[in-house]
Design brief:
Layout (H helix, E strand, L loop, with lengths): L13 H4 L4 H10 L14 E6 L11 H14 L3 E6 L13 H16 L5 E6 L4 H12 L3 E5 L6 E3 L2 E3 L3 H11 L5 H11 L11 H12 L14 H20 L3 H4 L2 H14 L4 H12 L6 H8 L16 H7 L2 H10 L15 H5 L24 E5 L2 E7 L10 E9 L2 H7 L12 E4 L20 H4 L7 E4 L11 E6 L16 E5 L4 E4 L3 H10 L10 H9 L26
Parallel strand pairs: 1-2, 1-3, 3-4, 9-10, 10-11, 11-12
Antiparallel strand pairs: 5-6, 7-8, 8-12, 9-13, 13-14
Helix pairs in contact: 3-9, 4-5, 5-12, 6-7, 8-11, 8-12, 11-12, 11-13, 11-15
Length: about 575
């Protein structure tokens, strides 16, 4: 249990604001041009509200309003709130992919915390990459920090059918290609997909990462599922503002909360909710920032025997709104605890253990949060497969896959990159059928660059028109958490660095054996060695800018795709005065 620090004591912000020296008067005097009274600089906790609001991050478009509630809570608890706009990597708008900028966001936000007079931080997040980037930054500086998410959108509806953001985008797009939906109907459905403020209403990556923050103990209990427009989301924001002030007084830091046990709780939670494969790469990176030894083996070990009990798209039929009404993540955590799958004494930002927070909650809808015997799949954890095609591992989400394809052998149809795929996939002359294995290269952290969400390759129209909706697909890319299918992702080492994926050829036979965690291309070791010796890189390298920095220093997906000079190091939180 965390030992609370003495209070009162001199806080970090007093290095800027406390005293009568020329340097202090410089810092404090300029702040007063905003109308702050002198007594606000008396040593009370200064709280940075790190806000990823942006008009170009639609998931986070309501965070300015929510930040006002956080400020109210901070004022009520005797703190001094200061809102700070920070890098907002939007999955909806950033090209080539928001994932390329997750590390840049984390780096810039880390320095925004370290270089300014904050005693604690409220991390205002929502869209996919904003949650991990802010947690990575806060973990690196290790000041008291707490997450408040923007919450999911309300349910979408189209002609009486629930419409899940992302999930139905993929579904309707395939229906158009199969001739089952007109383009005009697709455009009509578009207006039904996003009908309120908030993040994806499916168990996509945004909802998954909100759940991961709560399961890690970095957000207050119940935070993850409250809809973005529900008044209770504002209440959560205000209570979070109150709580961060006490966290500063207690000196309760990310390193006290984000322990190996906390990460194991999060991995098991991801299995139970049918969470996104993107959680793998983000939690590995977050663990690296606090020096926790978390590996793909931990993902496979911890998730292997956890049933998927949350009946949400893309694995199930409901959406986040129903999940909240059913009781949300606290019910899932309680179920894990009852099944012996939760480290009950893991500490949370509340100052209480995770079990103390959830032991008395009630499940209000057992069709949304299922009994274990009715689970969507009895082994819902992210599967890690290895073999001569993925020596360092690749991942697959079994709850979103077709059971009959989890053991499969088929002929490879190879796309050298995403452009090659787009050029060929709609060609009726493409030599492909439903028994084949689609393989795409050069879409990993270095190759795309940034590892875009293109791994759930749409099927060719000639196959869709047969009524086939799934095939085995393999790449070094990622997949949207809203997507589904028997899709092998994050294949490591990636093709762009000469991993075995780079030398797969059309016609090679590939075996996927999920029960035995195997991914194998049927060529001899000698043939593999010969091909690798002859391989030459074909992807473009950036000549300058952040893209150059990223390609030079990004690590593999198997370790979290963080920059190699940032992983596992925490620096001083106190900056030197330059005046």
């Amino acid at each position: 249990m965390h030992k609370k620090a003495e209070w009162p004591r001199r806080l970090r912000s007093q290095e800027w604001y406390g005293g009568t020296s020329r340097d202090v008067i410089y810092h404090r005097g300029w702040m007063k041009n905003q109308g702050y009274p002198h007594d606000l600089f008396d040593g009370r906790p200064v709280i940075g509200i790190l806000n990823t609001w942006s008009d170009m991050t639609p998931c986070n478009g309501h965070l300015r309003e929510l930040a006002e509630k956080v400020k109210a809570g901070i004022w009520e608890a005797g703190g001094f709130p200061m809102e700070v706009p920070v890098f907002s990597a939007s999955e909806n708008t950033f090209r080539p992919t928001a994932m390329m900028y997750r590390n840049l966001a984390a780096l810039s936000i880390e320095e925004a915390i370290r270089g300014q007079p904050m005693d604690g931080c409220v991390l205002m997040v929502g869209c996919d990459k904003t949650t991990p980037s802010l947690i990575m930054a806060a973990a690196s500086v290790d000041l008291p920090s707490i997450v408040v998410t923007g919450g999911p959108m309300l349910n979408g509806y189209f002609r009486g059918e629930r419409v899940g953001s992302g999930t139905h985008l993929w579904k309707f797009s395939e229906m158009v290609k199969a001739g089952e939906m007109t383009q005009d109907e697709f455009l009509e459905a578009e207006a039904s997909m996003s009908r309120s403020s908030g993040t994806c209403n499916t168990m996509g990556t945004a909802s998954t990462m909100a759940s991961m923050a709560e399961a890690l103990g970095m957000a207050l209990s119940g935070n993850a599922a409250i809809p973005g427009v529900d008044s209770r989301r504002k209440v959560m924001a205000q209570i979070t503002g109150r709580r961060i002030v006490q966290m500063v007084k207690d000196d309760l830091k990310p390193s006290d909360i984000m322990t190996k046990q906390a990460f194991e709780n999060a991995i098991r939670t991801n299995a139970a909710i049918g969470g996104s494969t993107n959680a793998v790469i983000h939690l590995l990176a977050m663990a690296g920032r606090v020096g926790i030894d978390l590996t793909l083996d931990d993902w496979d070990r911890c998730g292997r025997d956890v049933p998927t009990i949350v009946n949400l798209m893309p694995s199930g039929k409901y959406l986040m709104e129903e999940f909240f009404y059913a009781g949300g993540l606290p019910v899932v955590l309680k179920r894990l605890g009852e099944a012996g799958l939760l480290h009950k004494d893991a500490l949370t930002v509340s100052g209480e253990t995770v079990w103390d927070e959830v032991k008395n909650v009630v499940n209000w809808n057992e069709d949304v949060i299922l009994p274990a015997e009715k689970a969507l799949t009895q082994s819902g954890g992210i599967v890690v497969v290895r073999g001569n095609l993925a020596p360092k591992g690749a991942v697959l989400k079994p709850s979103a896959a077709s059971p009959h394809l989890l053991t499969h052998r088929g002929r490879a149809v190879v796309f050298e990159d995403i452009d090659d795929y787009k050029a060929k996939i709609n060609d009726d002359d493409l030599d492909i059928d439903e028994t084949c294995v689609m393989v795409m290269k050069n879409c990993g952290p270095k190759g795309y660059p940034g590892m875009a969400e293109v791994g759930n390759m749409g099927l060719p129209p000639k196959v869709l028109k047969k009524g086939i909706t799934d095939m085995v697909r393999i790449s070094d890319a990622r997949m949207s958490g809203t997507a589904y299918g028997t899709v092998v992702l994050h294949t490591s080492p990636e093709a762009a660095v000469g991993g075995p994926l780079a030398v797969v050829k059309n016609g090679d036979m590939i075996e996927l054996d999920v029960p035995n965690r195997r991914l194998h291309v049927d060529i001899s070791d000698e043939e593999m060695a010969r091909r690798l010796a002859e391989w030459k890189p074909s992807h473009e390298l950036a000549a300058s800018g952040y893209a150059w920095l990223h390609q030079q220093h990004v690590q593999g997906a198997d370790t979290g795709a963080d920059l190699d000079f940032l992983k596992g190091c925490r620096g001083s939180a106190v900056g030197k005065d330059s005046h």
